[in-house]
Specification:
This protein is of the alpha/beta class. Helices cover 44% and strands 11% of the residues. Strands 2-1-5-8-7 form a five-stranded mixed sheet, sandwiched between helices. Strands 3-4-6 form a three-stranded mixed sheet. A hairpin with a 4-residue loop joins strand 7 (199-202) and strand 8 (207-211). The radius of gyration is 19 Å and the shape is globular.
Length: 314
């Protein structure tokens, strides 16, 4: 990985300040939409360890016989997301209650918005992302025409774009029928108080802006990381909270190393949320994903889903 997420531009100096800024940046980058939703839960007291364990056991009981191919979350490593942030997790019933009024209409679509020269410079990656959106979310996914960066978003002294301003501008132009308006760029982004972010998103306005600039090479790794970033962050736009129950693409991440340790797949619980939200059948959707992964050289991911289907795990 040639570009380290701890290689910061601007912001605080010194080892302690750099480490703190890196952690904060990765919080925003890899779990940005959840952070924007935090106000919803700020008055709720945290669960006690006993309550949290009881909640986990309820989830594991609900998916007994369906989760043989999945690893339950163990103790977090020092510095990992769950070692720093004590999240309550979200059951299917909690998700359904929150999202009942927001379920999309049959003709809804996801719209990918290439910013600047992204479409010209990364045409193959953009098409792979479009195909993935349709396969993963079982929802029509389209690519918008190339979109200039909104005015007053470039900050010359930093050599970066202000992701907060980009997000605000995009939120004002979401076309009718679009349930996720998702912009991508290969330029560096920052957010208020943070040296860089991989992206920002908002469930309320259903918009997001994400950067591949720090995701690295070679192409296979860049593709895998981009797809994982996409399903995680678009999952947040569709109301899916961080997963604390299984090793899952919806786990929170405090570093690129931690994110790389997570699967690209949603766990059985988060798959159930998506299938209910969009109204699709999981086996048919997973077969389309298997075809996608094989087409794009991600054979290991295809083999995993084949085992899940063989074991009747969804």
């Amino acid at each position: 990985m040639p570009t380290s997420p701890a290689t910061l531009r601007g912001g605080p100096r010194g080892a302690a300040a750099t480490a703190g800024a890196a952690a904060l940046a990765l919080v925003a980058a890899l779990a940005c939409t959840a952070a924007l939703r935090a106000d919803d839960d700020e008055d709720e007291p945290p669960l006690s360890p006993k309550q949290l364990q009881a909640k986990k056991e309820l989830v594991y009981k609900a998916f007994a016989g369906q989760d043989a191919d999945w690893t339950r979350m163990g103790k977090a490593r020092a510095g990992d997301w769950l070692a720093r942030f004590k999240e309550p997790g979200e059951t299917f019933d909690e998700y359904r209650e929150e999202m009942e009024a927001d379920r999309p209409k049959p003709d809804s679509r996801i719209l990918l918005v290439p910013l600047g020269d992204f479409a010209k410079d990364h045409a193959d990656l953009l098409e792979a992302m479009r195909e993935y959106g349709e396969a993963f979310f079982a929802t029509r996914t389209e690519v918008a025409p190339a979109h200039a960066f909104p005015a007053r978003t470039w900050v010359e002294r930093r050599g970066q774009y202000n992701a907060d301003r980009v997000l605000d501008a995009l939120a004002k132009e979401v076309p009718p029928g679009v349930i996720a308006y998702v912009a991508f760029t290969d330029q560096d982004l920052f957010s208020s108080g943070l040296n860089f972010v991989f992206g920002l998103g908002s469930e309320g306005s259903r918009v997001g802006v994400y950067s591949t600039q720090r995701l690295g090479e070679p192409r296979e790794r860049l593709l895998w990381r981009t797809l994982q970033l996409m399903n995680h962050e678009v999952g947040h736009i569709f109301g899916v909270d961080h997963c604390i129950f299984y090793e899952c693409s919806m786990n929170g991440s405090n570093s690129l190393d931690e994110s790389d340790r997570h699967p690209i797949h949603f766990c059985p619980l988060d798959e159930k949320k998506l299938s209910w939200f969009f109204g699709f059948e999981l086996p048919a959707r997973d077969r389309r994903l298997i075809e996608y992964y094989r087409k794009h050289g991600l054979g290991g991911e295809a083999e995993f889903l084949e085992r899940v289907l063989k074991h009747g795990g969804k």
